[in-house]
Amino acid sequence: MKGNEQWTSKIGFILASAGSAIGLGAIWKFPNVVATSGGGAFLLLFLIFTLGIGLPLLIAEFVVGRGTGKEAIGAYKEIAPGTRWHWTGYLGMGTCFLLLSFYSVVGGWILLYLARGIVGGLLVEGRNYDELFAQTVSNPWTAVMAQLSFMLITIVVVGQGIKSGIERASRILMPGLFILFLVLILRSLTLPGMTEGLEYFLMPDFSKLTGQAILNALGQSFFCLSVGVSVMVTYSSYLNKKESLVKSATSVVSLNVLTSIMAGIAIFPALFALGMKPQEGPGLLFGTLPALFEQMPYGGIFITLFLALFLFAALTSAFSMLEILVSGFSRGNKINRKRLSVLFGILIFLAGVPSALSFGVLSEVQLFGLTIFEAADYAVTNILMPLGVLLIALFVGYRFPKDRLKEEFRTEAAWWHKGLALYVMLLRYVIPIVILLVFLNLLHII
Question: Which pLDDT score is estimated for 2?
Answer without folding.
Answer: 42
